Model the fold of this input.
Amino acid sequence: MIPATEVTTMNITMDVPRTTDAARKLRADLVERAAALRPLLSGNADPTDRERGVPAENIDALAEAGLLALMRPARYGGLQTDHRTLLEVGREVGRACGSTAWVTSLLNANAWFVGLFPAQAQDDVWAHTPHARVAGVVTPSGTARVVEGGYRVSGRWAPASGCAHADWAVLGVNRPDAEGTPDAVGIVLAPMSELTIEDTWFVTGMRGTASNTLVGEDLFVPAHRFHSVPDAIEGRYATPFTDEALYRAPFVPTAALVLTGPQLGLAAAAVDLLVERAPQRALTLTSYTSQAEAPTVQLAAAHAASLADSARLHAYRAAADIDEAARAGVFPDYDARARMRMDAGMAAVHAREAVRIVCSAQGASSFGESNPLQRIWRDIETGSRHAVLNPEVAAEIYGKSLFGIRGTVSAMV
Done:
């Protein structure tokens, strides 16, 4: 395993986002590192679920492999990869543990959000602590009140995935003083040391993400740590480093797509389990001594594998659209962004359906506590229902856009 310090000094240059061959080699290397961690992460998957938190051993191993630095700017020693790389790493980690993959993806995604802020805000987070991790909730469930030099911020933010492992938080806020302007809704940056965590994440699936509630009361946030969300949605970012392709990607499609990587991994894990176990088991109440010989199970395997592949194809197409536009310096128009959000929603739906088919093919035993399928099923049933991924909302947005109707459903496009 290559330590993160060697990763950033030996393998990474600022040209990686622009050099397709270099980006592909880096991606393959990072996926190999994630695959090497699967025995550890898989071995810890049950305790992660049972104890409602990703263990420090997992986080330390991911950090050492450079897998928590994917979206951090290279200026601060990060890998500054692309969205396809984040998806593939999330998928590989998700094959071992859904909660660990979710935390991996969200810590990276929130680092991407920080990369949109002014240089001074980025320095606050990383200049003196380049390995700082960032959690966050962009839903505007807090309030920012204008004061001299910045804002006083109060609120409760949930679910804050990975907050137990974070040094900073991205927090969504409303600004009553700016109603009717692009600054009415924003995101701010606050150190975790100024927030408290309430243990509220009592759920059936993705239990190990510890997506608890962040609480802040009258926090002072300097003005440079505020970013307008309407500006971000339209691609008007505050970062001065406009040559960095990664931080030109569209805001909402990125926020949706980053959630799909873990689900691709959960679907792949379910198919793997079916293929591995079916030859060793009889099909109850039939003459088949091996499920692998039964057409019903063969068809289930084919449909589940194809759906898992379809989920990847949708997610990877959206990633390609995002990454290629960012490299070209072109901000995707509304209709393109609507399709990207639709792709993310369909990836989640297809991945979830793949897992359902596997569970049905394996019968009631899928839900035995000792069977990892029940954890995979619980994780994907929960993760695939994140609000940003809502496939019905995504379909309405996309369907309307096909008829030239725009901006009537949600600002989050």
